[in-house]
Amino acid sequence: MRQEKNRVFRLEDYRPSPFRIPESHLTFELEPDATVVRAKLLFERADDTRADAPLVLDGDELELIEARLDGALLGADAFTAAPDRFELKAPPASGRFTLELVTRIVPSRNTTLMGLYRSGGNYCTQCEAEGFRRITYYLDRPDVLSVYTVRIEAKKSEAPLLLSNGNPVENGDLGGGRHYAVWHDPFPKPSYLFALVAGDLGVVRDRFTTMSGRPVELGIYVEHGKENRAGYAMDALRRSMRWDEEVFGREYDLDVFNIVAVSDFNMGAMENKGLNIFNDKYVLADEETATDTDFANIEAIIAHEYFHNWTGNRITCRDWFQLCLKEGLTVYRDHEFSADQRSRAVERIADVRTLRAHQFPEDQGPLAHPVRPRRYREINNFYTATVYEKGSEVVRMIRTILGPDDFRLGMDLYFARHDGDAATIEDFITVFEEVSGRDLSQFALWYHQAGTPSIAVTSNHDPKRGELVVEIEQSVPPTPGETRKRLMHIPLAFGLVGTDGRDVTYRSAEGATVENGVIHLRKRRHVIRFSGLNERPALSLNRGFSAPVTLTLEQKREDQLFLARNDSDPFSRWQAFTKLVSDALIDGSRRSRGQKPLEWPADLLQLAGDIATDGKLEAAFRALTLSLPSEADIAREIGSNIDPDTVHAARNGLVFAIAQANGERLAPVYDSLADMGPFSPDAASAGRRALRNTLLDYLATLPGGKERAAAHFTSASNMTDRAAGLSVLAHRHSGTEQAEQALEAFEARFGDNPLAMDKWFTIQAMVPGASTVDRVRALTAHPAYSGNNPNRVRALVGSFASGNQTGFHRPDGAGYRLLADVVIDLQQKNPQLAARLATALRSWRSVEPQRQAKAREALLHIAAVENLSTDVRDIVERTLA
Ligand code: PHE
Ligand code: ZN
Q1: Which intervals hold domain Peptidase M1 membrane alanine aminopeptidase (predicted)?
Q2: Is the beta carbon of 267 within 6 A of some atom in ligand 1?
């Protein structure tokens, strides 16, 4: 594979490219075992000061057949060509020339899913971040923008469909059973946005008229026979296009917009200009085979990729250190879209749960890195929760600081000023400083400094002076390579909640800038005096999770209970409830470890029941609140010396206690939510299903619960309810006849539907307890499983390693060994997927010593493999460091 395995790329080493490529003309002669790529590239020297510098192009596993300069065949002494590099020794002095390079590649043997590869008998490409160099020699870097014209030739019978970026120009017959199509993309783009798809696919078509009245042909391509599962994605696409016009004033810019669903894909989807390529998991859905979560994910990812057309494509990144420029911003945009399409509060709670579940452990472990990293060995390993989710939070904070109007002005300026640019984070921050007149230099640390800031808060009310005194202190823990941290600018939204649940107004606030319901922390310590408060209000802090921090708030328990019931901000109610539950669970884990009986505060059990049965609250909110913090969440809160078995015992104990204390109230709510009428994937209907399924999980722990769950499963009329029933049976009544029968019935019904079978694999991989390791290993031999398909691997092994605390962390290390075996088996075939799986071991230092030793062994076992791919080596070495 690649050479220079230990090369480190640094932000400060960035230099502009010495050459530009204004035009790229590519011809593909597609054959599975030997595809010929003819690249005719127009070069221009960009930097006169290096007039004699050679031209060096990137490659990866390429075979050069022929090279021509301005039409003339090049002799062997004029260039050097290796699989990973092409050098033209003496480019013409004029600095403007055409280089024609003919290379041969082998799509059928490409298992990395980068470059041109085969999926389901079709050809497709994946070029971000550095896959284009597996197609032809090129300046494969995001700041080299080129106008592409692409001609595709293929056997008609094998590939009736020929797609690339931009607009279709012409097509026709070639004789001998072959045909061709030509595509032209007028928008200059970096190579990572190139795409080609060829094959035999079904299509769903629609049409969209943009705000200025331009018609756009929309197409979603899927495997034949799956067209009827693409309707929801099409609907989501149309809604995304309209939303971006209405909320950001962004209009689509080509005559066509195509989406292709493929079944072998390393990530969720890819925003190639005019030709998005999707993991089919995020396109295909109907009630029979997809859950409400799948529908919501499809909506979000369709929107995300579409939104990239402006944030990513029209304005791209100067270099890969700027990845968050497109990703953080685009995640922010898709979160806002989902919030507008669904329930804002519910969306925010779900997003914050995801952030805390994925980004916080990353930021608090060995793989921590700034939102804009300064160095990397393998860029593939930086498509992380920090770049995406924390990157989105940073954009959200900019909006919190500026307010909606200035934020929109800043975005408008960003689009106007940088359209067509390969931009940087500095460019992005500057537009907001300019429109608002604010100094964001301290705020910019959010991009540059890794680690989750922690905030410690105490408050005291002085009735005589009518003052509430709030003391706030910030600190940022050290992270790898960054031992000393600087003070951050942290916007903390807050409310002072009066006895009637409404926010009270204070006369003045001193000690920090406080504006529009936001406290701006800039110093290590602030003592803030709110005056004009004769009665003591309850402090509601970090409302809406305005800043991604960990908060230690010394607060009276009565205040927490009060806020959980009465805060006007639903997010804060959820936050207050979750805090109470977390504290109880941490205490429960401690008791369980000390072999003491579990005890739960009666007021908490009562509160849970009240929320479950409160018809004034949105069903989805009640469901989210009642789906308690996961075992991984609790472990993260505990922080160190974790014994996952005691965490599991505590969480189960609390679920049982809530069910016991409230069972008589819960069952009628469960019954009242029974599926009625035809299926609709809308948020309100999904919320009712979510609440009913969450309640089932509680009720299943009571007498008759197994039978209830079995009936729930059998009578389910959609996948959401069916999968929930199966999961409750398999997890709460593992090994029983009912659970086994349900698993068999599911397999019999969906055995030939890979995406549905993924759910079946995941549910089994998540069965708590020591024996699941063996079950997972056995399932890797199941006919529906394939170690080559990323979705299968993630559904079975990925969910086991990252979602099954008791199984994965089996004290004898068998779970870690299983993961290591799978990583080692995959690491050459698909380095990217293998590396991502390996990150499941990133929190190894927070488990108790015996397990820690076993986890370390597994990591060392991987590290000892000869010829380890750069991707995996990078993750394993940083994890062990
Ligand atoms: N850029 C893609 C997205 O965020 C993610 C991706 C990265 C896909 C690398 C494939 C490879 O939408
Ligand atoms: Zn993205």
Answers
A1: 232-443
A2: yes
Ligand nearest to the CA of 113: 1
**What's the CA gap between 464 and 444, in Å, rounded?**
41
Phi, psi of 462 (to 5 degrees): -110, 100
Q: CB-side exposure of 255: number of CA atoms within 13 Å? A: 8
Distance CA(429)–CA(411), nearest Å, equals: 10
For ligand 1, say whether the CB of 383 is within 6 Å of any of its atoms: yes
- What are the tens digits of pLDDT across the range 594-645? 999 999 999 999 999 999 999 999 999 999 999 999 999 999 999 999 999 9
> 55 CB contacts (<8 Å, ≥6 apart)?
18, 19, 43, 87, 88, 91, 99
Average pLDDT over residues 634-659: 98
Closest ligand (CA of 790): 1
Binned at pLDDT 50, 70 and 90, residue 52 comes out as confident
Q: Are residues 156 and 142 in the same domain?
A: yes
600 lines ligand 1 (CB under 6 A): no
ipTM of the shown complex: 0.99
Q: Kindly report the CATH number assigned to the domain that includes residue 531.
A: 2.60.40.1840
CATH number at residue 408: 1.10.390.10
125, 127, 271, best to mutate for ligand 1 pocket (most atoms within 8 Å of CB): 271
Do 41 and 85 lie in a common domain?
A: yes
CA pair distance 463, 536, nearest whole angstrom? 7
Residues 6+ apart with CB under 8 A from 749: none
| The domain boundary residue, chosen from 178, 199, 220 | 199
**100 flagged as catalytic:** no
Residues 491 and 404 in one domain: no
Residue 472: its pLDDT value, please?
98
Closest CA to 608 of 596, 624, 595, 593: 624
- The verdict on 324 and 380 lying in the same domain is yes
The verdict on 68 and 176 lying in the same domain is yes
- Residue range 122-142: mean pLDDT, rounded: 98
pLDDT of residue 18 exceeding 90: yes
Catalytic position from the list 128, 287, 299, 305: 305
The CB-based long-range contact list for 587-591 (8 Å cut-off, 24+ gap) reads: 588/649, 588/650, 588/651, 588/653, 588/654, 589/634, 589/638, 589/643, 589/646, 589/647, 589/649, 589/650, 590/646, 591/650
What single-letter amino acid sits at 792?
R
Number of domains within the chain: 4
Ligand 1 pocket test: which of 114, 267, 382 has the largest number of ligand atoms within 8 Å of its C-beta? Answer: 267
* Closest residue CA from atom 2 of ligand 1: 270
Average pLDDT value for the chain: 97
Instruction: Give, in order, the Cα–Cα distances in Å from 772 to each of 202, 710, 787.
Output: 39, 21, 18
**How close is the Cα of 301 to the center of ligand 1, in Å?**
11
The pLDDT of residue 251 is above 80? yes
Helix residue ranges per DSSP H, 186-322: 231-248, 292-307
For residue 646, tell me if it sits in a domain. no
Q: Which ligand is nearest to the CA of 333?
A: 2
What pLDDT is attached to residue 677? Answer: 87
* Structural domain boundaries, residue 344: 316-448
Query: Tens of pLDDT along 785-801?
Result: 999 999 999 999 999 99
Per-residue pLDDT tens over the stretch 261-294: 999 999 999 999 999 999 999 999 999 999 999 9
Q: Are residues 435 and 497 in the same domain?
A: no
